[in-house]
Amino acid sequence: MRKVNRAITDEEYRAVADADPVKLFYTLADLRMAGIEPREEGLVPHNPVTKKVKSPDRWAKQQIEGAIAASAKWLDGVQNPSRDPIAAGIEADDKWKDKIMQAVKEDRRKKGLAKVSHADIVKVATALGTGVYSSGVDARKDKIQKVVNELQPLVQSVSDAIQGMSDKTDADREKRLLAARKLMIEVGKKRRG
Description:
The chain is an all-alpha fold and 193 residues long. It folds into four domains: 1-47, no CATH class; 54-83; 85-115; 117-193, no CATH class. The protein has eleven helices and no strands. The radius of gyration is 28 Å and the shape is elongated.
């Protein structure tokens, strides 16, 4: 779909959009991703009052400034939710499972990972600095303590079970290693309940 002999009229465009808006979306999106502006090709009417999406630079700048300015509102929302977020999450479990299965089916994780690089991660971490990491750990001290309190007796039980096994031969030691792995998997299962 390239240069047309004449520009498409509003009526023709509306008919195409009404007939199959999804197909039209993919056509326009694919052209733009290939560096072709459909308006310039005459595939979208040149209507001076047609709503146009903000430029990427302006849109991103406004998103960033708005998010930074809303930090106090974010904290207030966390402290004063309109409903219990834990109960709401449990209630929405079937919806979550459905969304996860859809994401797996569509390979969304792999596709998302393909859009970033290690350099992107390093750039963000460098810009944030070590203070963000250490303050994040410090803010989670109680959670860390809670997890360790749950984990320690289970890991001690793994150690006690392994220490009770024979270790005289290579076969014995190999059996201990495999048992340790299996028992640590069981620790995870036991913690999850």
